[in-house]
């Protein structure tokens, strides 16, 4: 145990460049010895975020061996999993193996946990060469260790769900929680962008059949949306989403084509959306999200593929009076809320289980 004082946000683990937070660092200190408020977790599985995995898959033409080698190289070089192209990482599941005497996280040795902070700021060492991973899926069996800081967040794994299912849900648990908060604000004021109403807002979720998208749809309905619309890229996903029964309408459109996306949304919601939630893992969806949202509406961006300059400048160029929010992945109680949606919505659970 290291006795000199650390920092609750992990500044003491930053090696390069000096003076930045761990997420912005290019290299972290991964020594296994703990500062007093840290916790070390024995890693069992990583969950790469969708944008990062898709970028690696495209960059290496779907060659799993090359994708695996790329992930190993990133972790070895940076001391964390942070895709240099997307800037994103993911999260992990593991078992607590040592807890510093000043750790505020409330964890004990032997607890099985999912980290609710990004791998982009988590010191990480891989010790098995990812031998159990074929490089073809977002979930990565792994053996190694990770370090949690005093202000990190971790949740104990629920006993009623398979670890890989719980990890998949917790990876995107910020999306439904923030969606519910925004929809509840509209519903509680008794108004939408069209003015006073006894109905809740119209919510459009772009990428509605994905993990974060399906949870966002379920959350919007539970929070009081009057109408929910799921946007998917092709008919096969439309059929999956329709069978899940969590959207009032499902439309097919390429989210990268702004006009096609707007036209598709208007078929299901002629007045467009009060709240648009972007959950796709490809770049170029900003303009379509703006065009699909009414003046006075709100857009929530949950995709790490989003260009926030394109979103802001695009809205300005379209003279669109919309509020744009960055989903930062943290809302108090987000993990429990997402897991409760999974348990209560068989359609959501079926979509998640199909992806495992």
Folded structure, characterized:
By secondary structure, the chain is an alpha/beta fold. It folds into 2 domains: 11-161, Quinone Oxidoreductase, Chain A, domain 1 (Alpha-Beta Complex); 174-355, Rossmann fold (3-Layer(aba) Sandwich). Helices cover 34% and strands 23% of the residues. The protein has helices at 50-59, 64-78, 163-170, 174-189, 211-223, 235-244, 258-268, 286-291, 308-317, 334-344, 346-355, and strands at 14-16, 27-28, 39-48, 90-99, 112-115, 124-126, 139-148, 154-156, 191-192, 195-196, 202-206, 227-232, 249-252, 273-278, 293-301, 323-326. The strands form 4 sheets. It has a 6-stranded antiparallel sheet with strand order 6-7-3-4-5-8, sandwiched between helices. β9 (191-192) and β10 form a beta hairpin. α4 runs parallel beside α5 (211-223), α4 (174-189) packs across α10 and α6 runs antiparallel to α11. The mean pLDDT is 94.
Can you give keywords for this protein?
356 residues, alpha/beta, Rossmann fold, six-stranded antiparallel β-sheet, 11 helices
For the record, the count of structural domains works out to 2
Cross-sheet strand order for the largest sheet = 6-7-3-4-5-8
Mean pLDDT comes to: 94
State the end-to-end CA separation: 38 Å
- What multimeric state do the chains show? single chain
Per DSSP E runs of 2 or more residues, the count of β-strands stands at: 16
Biggest beta-sheet profile: 6 strands, antiparallel
Strand content: 15-25%
InterPro entries: GroES-like_sf, KDD_N, NAD(P)-bd_dom_sf
EC number: 1.4.1.11
Domain L-erythro-3,5-diaminohexanoate dehydrogenase N-terminal: 12-158
GO molecular function, one term: L-erythro-3,5-diaminohexanoate dehydrogenase activity
């Amino acid at each position: 145990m290291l006795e000199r004082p650390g920092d609750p946000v992990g500044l003491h683990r930053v090696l390069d460049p000096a003076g930045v937070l761990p997420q912005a660092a290019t290299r972290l200190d991964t020594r296994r010895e703990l500062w007093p408020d840290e916790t070390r977790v024995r890693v069992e599985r990583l969950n790469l975020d969708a944008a990062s995995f898709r970028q690696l898959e495209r960059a290496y033409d779907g060659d799993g061996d090359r994708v695996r080698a790329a992930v190993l190289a990133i972790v070895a070089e940076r001391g964390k999993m942070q895709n240099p192209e997307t800037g994103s990482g993911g999260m992990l599941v593991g078992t607590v193996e040592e807890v510093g005497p000043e750790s505020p996280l409330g964890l004990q040795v032997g607890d099985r946990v999912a980290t609710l902070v990004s791998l982009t700021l988590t010191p990480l060492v891989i010790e098995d060469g990812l031998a159990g991973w074929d490089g073809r899926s977002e979930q990565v069996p792994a053996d190694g260790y990770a370090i949690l800081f005093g202000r990190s967040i971790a949740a104990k794994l629920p006993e009623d769900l398979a670890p890989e299912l719980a990890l998949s849900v917790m990876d995107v648990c910020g999306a439904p929680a923030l969606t519910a908060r925004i929809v509840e604000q509209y519903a509680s004021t008794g108004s939408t962008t069209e003015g006073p109403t006894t109905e809740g807002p119209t919510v459009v979720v772009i990428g509605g059949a994905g993990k974060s998208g399906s949870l966002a749809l379920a959350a919007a309905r539970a929070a009081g949306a009057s109408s929910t619309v799921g946007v998917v890229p092709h008919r096969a996903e439309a059929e999956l989403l329709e069978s899940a029964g969590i959207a009032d309408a499902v439309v097919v459109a390429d989210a990268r084509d702004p006009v096609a996306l707007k036209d598709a949304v208007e078929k299901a919601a002629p007045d467009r959306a009060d709240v648009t939630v972007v959950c796709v893992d490809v770049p170029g969806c900003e303009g379509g999200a703006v065009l699909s949202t009414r003046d006075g509406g709100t857009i929530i961006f949950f995709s790490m593929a989003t260009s926030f300059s394109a979103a802001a400048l695009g809205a300005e160029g379209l003279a669109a009076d919309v509020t744009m929010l960055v989903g930062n992945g943290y809302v108090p109680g987000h993990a429990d809320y997402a897991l409760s949606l999974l348990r209560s919505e068989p359609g959501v659970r079926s979509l998640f289980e199909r992806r495992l």
